[in-house]
Amino acid sequence: MEPETIKWLAVGMIGSIGLLGPALALGLIGHTAVQALGRNPEARGAIMTNMILVAALTEAIGIYALIVAIILAMVA
After folding, report:
1. 3-state DSSP call for residue 15?
2. Are 6 and 39 in contact (CB under 8 A)?
3. Res 11: pLDDT
4. What predicted TM-score, i.e. pTM, was given to this entire model?
5. In this predicted model, what pLDDT tens digit does every residue of 8-47 receive, in sequence order?
6. What's the half-sphere exposure (Cβ side, CA atoms, 13 Å) at 63?
7. 63 with 21: CB under 8 angstroms?
8. Nearest to 18 by CA among 68, 53, 76, 52
9. pLDDT, position 32
10. Is residue 33 within 8 Å of 47, Cβ to Cβ?
11. For the chain, which residues make up each domain, given as ranges?
12. CA distance 6 to 3
C-alpha cells in the first residue's frame, strides 16, 4: 500500500471511530434525561442543566477527534 492510502485510511478510521463514541453517548444522555423527566417532572431544571453540561463535554470529545482527523489529513 502507498503511504498516501494508509494516511487516508487512518483519517477515515479516526473520524469514524472517534466520532462514534460521542454520538452514542449523546443518544444515551438524551434517553436517560427523558426517562428522568418522565419519572420526576418537578426536577426539570436540575435534569436539563446537568444534561446540557454533560452533552457539551461529550461533544468536545467529538470535536477533538475531528480536529485530529483534519490535522492528519493536512500533514504530508
Report:
1. helix
2. no
3. 92
4. 0.79
5. 998 999 999 999 999 999 999 999 999 999 999 999 999 9
6. 6
7. no
8. 68
9. 96
10. yes
11. 3-74
12. 5
